[in-house]
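User: My collaborator sent over this chain with a note saying "see what the structure looks like." That's all I know about it. Can you take a look?
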Amino acid sequence: MADEGPIRSEFADDPEMALLIREFVDSLPSRAQTIHAHLEAGAHDTARTLAHQLKGAGGGYGFPQVTEAARAVDRSIRDRRLDDARAAASALVKLAARVMP
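Assistant: Without extra context I'll predict from the sequence alone. Here is the result:
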């Protein structure tokens, strides 16, 4: 079973990144929920664009787990595997709740 503990940034010890990481972490649950909501509403292109953006941002803030989760959503939508995309979006929402600065 996957780890269910907190996820911390690889850059957590970098004081120059602290504020940026906090802002990213604070926005992450909303971003993940928005991706999920667009997917559920049938706005697949918007959901994919948002997932693609989050995929790029996750690693930049030291959260490769976020990158991987967003990548799963992005690829599933791209490949028109919408059941997989919904499951991946749900997993992203759960993961976002575990992310800490």
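A starting point for your reply to your collaborator: The mean pLDDT is 96.
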